[in-house]
Write a sequence for this structure.
């Protein structure tokens, strides 16, 4: 049966050691972040402390997503992923 809403978490299982860890939905997708994409969207927008805070928050999210892309046990980047339905 297909559920119409997306899962809130995904479970990743390491292909090398078998360890499993959970990842929030918003961090489970693989995204490509480029410096050009981050800076080109800033044209015509406000700069200053608010823009800097937004940039720092975005960088923190990217760091968290990067840390969840490797196995916490063996640091392998090879894993399978499936949705966890509660």
């Amino acid at each position: 049966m297909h559920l119409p809403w997306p899962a809130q978490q995904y479970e990743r299982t390491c292909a090398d050691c078998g360890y499993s860890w959970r990842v929030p939905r918003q961090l489970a997708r693989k995204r490509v972040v480029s410096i050009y994409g981050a800076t080109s969207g800033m044209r015509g927008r406000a700069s200053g402390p608010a823009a800097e805070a937004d940039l720092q928050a975005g960088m923190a999210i990217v760091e968290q997503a990067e840390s969840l892309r490797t196995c916490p046990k063996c640091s392998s980047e090879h894993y399978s992923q499936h949705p966890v339905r509660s």
Observations:
- The first helix runs from residue 25 to 28.
